[in-house]
Amino acid sequence: MNTSKKAAGFLRTRGTGTGRWLGNILYNIKASKAWDQKLFYYQFLPAIPGVTATYLGLLLPARLVQGLEEGWEIQRILACVLLLYVGMCLLKMADKGMGEYLYRNYPTLIMYYEKLCYGKVMRLDYRMLEEPETAGLMANTWNVLRSEFGFRNALCATPQILGSLAGIGWYGILIARKNYGILLLTLANTLFNTLLMSWLRKKQEKLHKKVGAYSKKTAYINRMSMDRQAGKDIRIYRMTDWFLQKYDRALGDMDSIYRQIHDGAFLRAAGEALAAFLVNGFSYFYLISLLVKGEMSASGFVLYMGLVGSLSGYFAQLMGQLLVLNPVSVSVGYIRQFLALPESMDWSGQGLGAEKLEELKREGIRVDFEQVSYTYPGGEEPVLHQINLTIAPGEKLALIGLNGAGKTTLVKLLCGFYRPDRGRILINGIPASDFAREEYFELISVLFQDSALLPMTLDFNLTGKGAEAIDRKRLTWALKVSGFWEKYQSLPQKGQSLLVREVSGSVDFSGGEKQKLLFARALYKEAPLMILDEPTAALDPIAENEMYLKFDEAAQGRTCLYISHRLSSTRFCDRILLMEQGQVMEEGTHEELMARGGRYRELFEMQSRYYREREEQRRRNAFME
Are the beta carbons of 224 and 234 closer than 8 angstroms? Predict the structure, then answer.
């Protein structure tokens, strides 16, 4: 079964299970415990002092009236009032202190979720990042992580919900001793509000799913507006207004959805307020009638009026805080669904083992493509069609072809980023799927055309290791072979120099220098299979020729795949493959392909003529000057 179909099916089945409201709320509570023990316990402990303080606040005026009714001495009245007041203040201080901790430290829980999600996205199979289902889920996940107030409200809502439940139970028992009807009406009101809340929660879940598509658009515009490379095109071609129009349109669509969410919340609040008015009206009428008939003392009336009002308030607070948790439940549902994605569906769980892996490295890498075909998800035509290819151990193979020929797709398949729809890829006779993912990546070193540099030290970018773990001898060799040694030595802080402009005091390099740096990084890894994707694209002809000579030295004992659009740059390779329309059209050495007079010769002569004309033009311009 196609792995992209497996992933899509997984997303659909997980979406119905992990989106459950209670499960998501409990997951959020457990996450707070995993991150910060205080965040966890302070969601539960405030319920005790909070409810007790409220009860003391109701008891205080009742005891005061009772003292006046029964003729207590003034000292006794003052002592009772003072004791209740001090106890109430101390309990409120404890409640407030724990609540402040929750409020001030909630951002760290979001950072914890972000850490989990960032780690997850880096561990996922690369293929999954390009699938529409995963991309949509990721967009929703990043969107909810930016909504920090929802998580803050969730942490602060938990103690209020627990306090409300405790208050409802305590006050409900006291009120039931006077009249079961009041309690039953209150419970009926709660059921009504629960139904309203359930309706609103389902409505919000459906609407939040629609927000994901628009948040993906706004995130893309945000990213492009701050991207240095895109910034040049945006300014030269005056694309600012177009970007802003797209952003405004996406915001307008999102605003329409959020308006529907808020309208639903308003209807729920209006229904809750009407039901509370009817229940409280009956309760107060009943208590007043008992007082008028003399069946209840004035102090009892004061106490039970407070109990009824507080019970109603607790029910309202419970419904309100449960409603606060609705969007949080949806948010946590997206996070859970994303974190539950299988990190790898293409690789063996056990792998070959370290001993077998070292044996492969000693033998040298042989690569076999057997009847390999691949079609991108949603595509109708295969990008690669029945590719049969063998790369012998230690062979230098050049892969050439026009744009869209399938070169990049073939490289991604060889790197293990994709899996063939049909056929298989073998490494030394072993199917690629039999390797553990990290084992397979250990065999490959790649210089991608669009490789990224991190805002860290130069040495870390070259080796991926801290200063104490770097093999200096191997690093020096890689720098010299790549041609980056002189630039490295010229830097005041050498390997401790910080890269990219975003870091204060950092250094930056030209396109050609970056190409050499990335070449050094690929060499340092010392993998037995090396892939170079347009390694000389940013180099001038002289630097390009120097790199060819260095590459021939670096390739000794390694299996190498070299991709280029400059046909003249492939002459040093043992064999050349010309690809067109997802198939290998011609194969052989440069001399053999030229002698056949086929498509390779046509393209080679076309490029040669272009470069000759450009060189002649350059010389004429120099002469005129």
Answer: yes
The sign of the torsion formed by the CA atoms of 19, 25, 26, 29 equals positive
**CA–CA dist 441, 438 (Å, integer):** 5
- Contact yes or no for 491/509 (Cβ under 8 A): no
Compute the average pLDDT of residues 122-141: 83
Locus of tokens 């948010």: 331
d(CA 222, CA 224) in angstroms, rounded, equals 6
Task: Count the neighbouring beta carbons within 10 Å of the beta carbon of residue 120.
Answer: 17
pLDDT at 17 (0 to 100): 40
* Confidence tier at 429 by pLDDT (50, 70, 90): very high
pLDDT surpassing 70 at residue 54: yes
Task: Give the model confidence (pLDDT) of 146-190 as tens digits.
Answer: 776 667 777 778 888 888 888 888 888 888 877 777 777 777 777
Q: Which two tokens stand for residue 572?
A: 């040093």
Q: Which amino acid is at 136?
A: G
Nearest to 409 by CA among 163, 614, 583: 583
Can you tell me the distance from the alpha carbon of 384 to that of 399, in angstroms, rounded to the nearest whole number? Answer: 14
Q: Is the pTM of this model over 0.85?
A: no
* Strand-pair category, 529-533 with 384-391: unpaired
Please state, as a whole number, how many other Cβ atoms lie within 10 Å of the Cβ of residue 210.
14
Angle at 617 between CA 614 and CA 623, to 5 degrees: 145
SS3 for 448?
A: coil
Distances (CA, A) of 369 to 280, 376, 399, 573, 592: 77, 18, 14, 19, 23
Residue 491 confidence (pLDDT) above 50: yes
Distance CA 291, CA 283 (A): 13
Distance between CA 368 and CA 424 in Å, rounded? 8
Taking the C-alpha atoms of residue 44 and residue 95, their distance in angstroms, rounded to an integer, is: 11
Distance CA 467, CA 460 (A): 8
pLDDT in tens, 95-119: 999 988 888 887 888 889 889 998 9
Determine the 3-state secondary structure of 269 from DSSP. helix
Alpha carbon distance 56, 162 (integer Å)? 18
d(CA 537, CA 362): 32
What does the alpha-carbon distance between residue 460 and residue 454 come to, in Å, rounded to a whole number?
9
Tell me the longest C-alpha to C-alpha distance in the chain.
Answer: 122
> How many degrees, rounded to 5, is the angle at CA 233 between CA 229 and CA 234?
105
Helix, strand, coil shares, percent, the chain, to 5: 70, 10, 20
Angle (deg, nearest 10), helices 472-482 and 511-524: 140
Q: Could you tell me which residues are beta bridge partners of residue 43?
A: none
Residue 70, Cα to own-chain centre: how many angstroms? 67
State how far the Cα of 59 lies from the Cα of 55, in Å rounded to an integer.
Answer: 6
- pLDDT range class, residue 391, cuts 50, 70, 90: very high
- Exposure on the CB side of residue 471, measured as CA atoms within 13 A: 10
Distance CA 140, CA 449 (A): 30
What confidence category does residue 351 fall into, taking pLDDT thresholds of 50, 70 and 90? Answer: confident
Neighbours of 327 (CB within 10 A): 20
Q: What is the pLDDT of residues 532-552, one digit of tens each?
A: 887 666 666 666 666 666 777
